Amino acid sequence: MTEHESLSVVNSSRQFLSFILAGEEYATDILKVQEIRDWTNATIVPNGPDYVEGVTNLRGQIIPIINLRTRFSLPKDNDLKNRIVIVLNIDDGQKTRLMGLLVDAFAETYDINEDEIKAAPSKISVIDDEFIIGLASADDKMLILLDVDELLTSKELTPTINDNVA
Amino acid sequence: MSIDLSQFIPTFLEESFEGLELMESSLLNLEQGDIDTINAIFRAAHSIKGGAGTFGFNHVTDFTHDVETLLDEMRDGRRSIEQSDVDLLLRSVDCIRLLIEAARDGVECDAPNIQDVHRALAKTLNKEISNTAEPLESEPDVVENTVSNTCPSWKISFIPHHEMLQTGNDVLYIINALAELGPVTQVVESENIPPLDSIHPEECYLSWQITLQSHCDKGDIDEVFEWVEDECDLIIELVTEESAEIIEETKVVANPESEPATTDIKKAPSEPVTAVKTKIANPDGGSIRVGIDKVDALINRVGELVITQAMLKQVGTDLSHHEDGLVEKLLEGLVQLEGNTRDLQEDVMRIRMLPISFVFNRFPRMVYDISSKLGKKIELKLSGEQTELDKTVMEKIGDPLVHLVRNSLDHGLEMPEERIEAGKDETGTVHLHAYHQGGYIVIDIIDDGRGLNTERIKEKALEKGLITPDQHLSDQEVNELIFAPGFSTAEQVSDLSGRGVGMDVVRRNIESLGGHVALTSTPGKGSTFSVSLPLTLAILDGQLIRVASETYIVPLISIIESAQLNHNNVKAVAGNPSLYFFRDEYIPIYSIRQLFALPNSQSPLDESMMIMVESSGHKYALLVDDLLDQQQVVLKSLDSNYMAVEGISGATILGDGGVALIVDIKGLNALKQQMSCEISHPFEHTSESVA
Questions:
Q1: In the listed set B493, B518, B534, which residue is the last one of a domain according to the structure?
Q2: Angstrom distance (rounded) from CA B240 to CA B510
Q3: Which of A133, B169, B267, B540 is the most exposed place for a label (fewest CB within 10 A)?
Q4: Which residue would you say has higher pLDDT here, B112 or A47?
Q5: Are both B218 and B314 inside the same structural domain?
Q6: Which residues of B touch A48 (CB under 8 A)?
């Protein structure tokens, strides 16, 4: 990503915001994060992919909420009460959208040097390789650094009506 | 000091296109000796030339210069206004538009007819244009042609308004520019200088009486003063030596309140230069140019305010059981807030509203062109041009209207001989009439032509297989067939209409805006097309419905009626209850729960409601669990942050802050088609009660 490359020239350290998902710790570039909100009920979008929890009102804007557990085929958690939504600015190359990522809990922010980011071995999980920037260690924990732009681009959200029907 | 001029280009373009429109409509209204109108056309051309020169659009400048010269001759009475000249000028307007568009897109404009028109212009001006490879590049030098042999002397009285300097104008530049035209003698009048203690250093208190000896044209002098003409009192008089005849012109005092103490200026008896005498009525005049994004941001903000207000009201109502005077006061305040918010919302919405004249303005020219092309005599009547509608709707209604008007001109109106034979006036009339009705704007296109030929339509429809011979249709039903896809009755395919993609596209476009088109026709007397459109696409009257745990909104306009579901009227086809018998019709049943794949929450069949809706002439019976309120909702798009969803036309935010989706009736049909491979059973979740 060009943004990352240019950043690395100016400043080799990047800030990441991490969150918990089924006991694992993931992180996203903090510059993508607009705000963090408590979960409120979303309106179901007809015939959408199962990981689209619905749409919700963010100060007059209608934004989709992506359930990251479902997205990563993690065990479903039916009690959404204490969950949080990370509102992200997603850039698909043409325009910027606001999207909410439903996760278990917000964890921490980390300063991570570019050279500390290790490439993730390929095909380690159900998560496609292009969604992962790399892996990093912080306080003896492993952080999975996600590329949320790739993860939430519109082609990933295309409704699969035939899949639903079938 | 250098300024990046390119930032002004969009403004120039916008103003130029407006100027061209004004030229066009003025030319169509031009009568012999109508100096005001010619002046207005001239000024529009002049501004375009000036602007184009500033931005280096030389093709535009050169072309417009010749147009301006021709207009100048008309203005001075050196040339009478011939129809052929008006035609030429109209064609020139088209060329300038093409040239400006080319300049905007940064391409060379190579349309061959531009050179033709330019040559015709030059010929009219009795001037040879050098026939080099790039005729448009040659700098025409027409000014010299128009000058007499004597050396005329111009008397210029130039009285700047006090604040003229504040707009960055410098008197010295102006006088230097005059000096380039010829020898200048000037007298500075300083009697208006106030006492020292009340002098404002940024104001101009001086005025000038200037004598200029020059062969130049009055236009050249006007050009020098162009940028300050609204900020000064200016009198330019030509003192010819032979006759001492004085040609006078008074510029309107732009700012009467701040008029300096120069009341002794002699005003010429001529009328002040007013806006052109056209039908582009702009009653209040005052307007500002604002980016549409700013207005939309404001509308969104107000939409949010309405929601916040509704939220507070809810909180207030919840509190009201507390026996406390304060709560009462709070509620009072909230009621007031509600009123204010609604008013504010209405006002903001009005910003987007524009008079339909913006659309109507293109028709005089179109009718003019088509009538000469077809050899028909046509009078165009416009009424209700001040009827307002939303800008977005306006942008989309232009093309369908053009199509309908063309259709009336081409097919509806007869040739003059035919009309005389039929005992009618040889001039046919097309009347465009706009008015408000309910939440809709209705535009009637009325012609007094031959009316629809029902027999011919029937034959054609049979031929195209749109109907079968044993079908019994009323005349009205037959006439409606012209909206069927692939239908065109034109005996000869003309380049106006008759390409067979006509009326069905028109109807589709209008319906996609949430409107509809109706037609009435009387053989021999004429036909009327009636287009109704919602005033705005930003607000919608909706019926709130509940299906499972979700709230949806059905546009009120598409609802015919709603009723309790009667089991006896549910009819099965191939084992599936898929039709509903209602008022002597079998209507397909659409279950929202099924189409939207909602969770299987139980809902006893006898509690279900049925909403009869209509879209594109088809009726559907929607099954819902409950009918809730009716309310006006602000439309929001789903695809600005997510994407378009089949069967959903948008979303809105309800009073409690939650999101409700708006059902798109036409989209439901498409959804149903996609799902039709699956064996459908509208009552699958409640099948026990059916059985």
A1: B534
A2: 62
A3: B267
A4: A47
A5: no
A6: 645
* B363 and B505 fall within a common domain: yes
The conformational region for residue B152 under phi > 0 = left, psi -120 to 50 = alpha, else beta, is: beta
**Do B303 and A48 lie within an 8 Å CB cutoff?**
no
Give the up-direction half-sphere exposure of residue A98: CA atoms within 13 A in the CB hemisphere.
16
pLDDT of residue B145: 40
Q: Are B497 and B556 in a shared domain?
A: no
pLDDT at B127: 54
Are B133 and B164 contained in the same domain? no
* B682 and B546 in a common domain: yes
Domain annotation covers residue B586: yes
Domains and CATH numbers, chain A: 13-149 (2.40.50.180)
Along chain B (691 residues), what's the average pLDDT of each consecutive run of 10 residues? 69 84 83 78 84 82 85 80 82 86 78 80 66 40 42 79 76 78 78 78 80 78 77 76 41 39 39 36 60 80 77 77 74 83 80 86 86 86 88 84 86 87 88 84 90 85 81 82 71 46 78 83 89 79 88 90 85 78 87 82 63 83 88 82 86 85 86 66 43 33
Last residue of a domain, one of B111, B144, B177: B144
Q: How many domains does chain B contain in total?
A: 5
Say which CATH number the domain at B595 has: 2.30.30.40
Question: Are A45 and B645 an interchain contact pair (Cβ–Cβ within 8 Å)?
Answer: yes
Instruction: Please check whether residue B381 is in contact with residue B430, taking contact to mean a CB–CB distance below 8 angstroms.
Output: yes
Residues in CB range of B421: below 8 A, 6 or more apart: none
Instruction: Supply the mean pLDDT for chain A.
Output: 81
Assess contact for B631 and B618: CB atoms under 8 A: no
CA distances from B519 to B243, B389, B511, B533, B550 (A): 65, 22, 15, 15, 39
Give residues 26 to 55 of A whose Cβ lies within 8 Å of B.
41-48, 52, 54-55
Q: What's the CATH number where B247 sits?
A: 3.30.70
Question: Given this model, what pLDDT does residue B462 score?
Answer: 85
Domain that holds residue B254: 153-258
Residues B524 and B544 in one domain: no
Cβ atoms of B434 and B387 within 8 Å: the answer is: yes
CB-CB under 8 Å, A97 with B640: yes
DSSP B573-619: ETTEEEEEEETTEEEEEEEHHHHTT-------GGG-EEEEEEETTEE
CATH of the domain at B521: 3.30.565.10
Contact A62 B651 (CB under 8 A): yes
The answer to whether the CB atoms of A63 and B642 lie below 8 A apart is yes
Q: Please name the residues between 51 and 70 in chain A that touch chain B, using a CB distance below 8 Å.
A: 52, 54-57, 59-64
pLDDT computed for residue B501 by the predictor: 53
CA distance B333 to B498: 62
Which of A41, A157, A165 is opposite residue B643, by nearest beta carbon?
A157
- What are the beta bridge partners of residue A64? A55
Q: Which residue has better confidence, A50 or B132?
A: A50
Type of residue numbered B412: G
Task: Give yes or no for a contact between B171 and B208, defined as CB atoms under 8 angstroms apart.
Answer: yes
DSSP state of B326: H
> B280 lies in a domain?
no
| Average pLDDT estimate for A39-66 | 89
Q: Count Cα neighbours of B389 within 13 Å in the Cβ-side half-sphere.
A: 32
Say if pTM beats, i.e. exceeds, 0.80.
Answer: no
Query: What was the ipTM of the complex prediction?
Result: 0.82
| Same domain flag for B645 and B623 | yes
Residue B285 lies in a domain: no
pLDDT of residue B572: 79
CA distance B51 to B14: 11
My answer on whether B528 and B384 are in the same domain is: yes
Rounded CA-CA distance B57/B108 in Å is: 11
Are B121 and B92 within 8 A, CB to CB?
yes
